[in-house]
Amino acid sequence: KGLATPENAMITLDAMKALDPCQLKPDSMETERIITVLDETIAKLEMSSLIPRIIDSLDRFADMLGPEITNNLIEHQKLSNEMEHLLASLEEEDTMRAEEQRGCLCLLEQCLKCSVRNVLRLLLANPSLCQALKYEAWARESPAEVFIKAFGEFRNFMLERLLTSPVEEEEKIQFMEDISLQIKKNTEAITALQAELAAAIRTREEEIHKKDNVIKDLKTSMQDLAKVCKAGIQQIKQEGEKQQKEELQASQARCARLQQDVQQLGAQLDALVLEHRASELALRKRKCRVETEIVNWIQKYDTDMGEKQAEYEDVNAAYTEEKAQLSLLMEKRAVLLQEYSQIEEERRICQEKKEQALKEFTTMTLAATRIQAFWRGYLVRSLFKSKRKKKKGKGKKTKK
Fold it and tell me: What top-level branch of life does the organism fall under (predicted)?
């Protein structure tokens, strides 16, 4: 209570005003852009958290949503079901199959993200529809609500940080450090005095049964101790005020230097902002040109694909006609092949008969040749035999 002076109260009031972020005003376009982005993100989070509720009651919201959003939501539901089925099967399949499933899971995850972006784009394009859906499908999942609330707190924190300049931030930090140091010193002094007072009380309780003059001496010593403590507190307070003035002067000098640095950095920042805005304008123009080229290429692609489709239909019609002719020719070929096989079979049989007859003729010719040779040999041998007999007969007659 001895430290709660009007000067300290005035310092505390000024500190609370300095620490209050509501006293600051946004003076930067970048700050407004950042806050706008955070607000749009919160709106997207709120709408994305309502998508499961809308899909569950799609029949009730179909007339309100329209065919395009309804079809996108149906497609999103199909992708969600496929994702759940794939995750369930991923826990049951073996390792090799699981690797393939993980690849499919990554691809399906990308498709699901694209589906969510398309649904949010279509919903946020109609603010009245978004407002109506917030009133109709108000129920959200508790984790989504917690996340949205945490993101809102993050947005408020970012707003407070963006609305607080670096100089004010340093002043707050320095002021809090000074207050903490002063509180620490006062607490140490109070603790020491309380310890001395407790020691004196214990001493008085131990010697309470002594003589009255001893009690009077103790009271006198306690009064002297209180005076000494009061004088010590006054001295500590004076030293603290002196130190505070010195630190205030040093802080003002630092603030002046920092203000100069801030002005220099502000000039650099303005130059960078101008440079970045010029580059941003150039990039926007380039983006417009690229988008125009993309639209032209898409139109050219549609035209080429139309021509290719017409050409494909003509080729397909010619192919169908030729395929019908080919089927007729294949039928004729099958008949001709059957007739050709029959003719070949007849030729083969005729050839075999000719070969068999030629073989028999050759055998008979060879047999006849051999018989004739044998017969000629027989005739020659018979002729020679008769001649020999005649020669032998003549020889016998001459000898007689």
Answer: Eukaryota
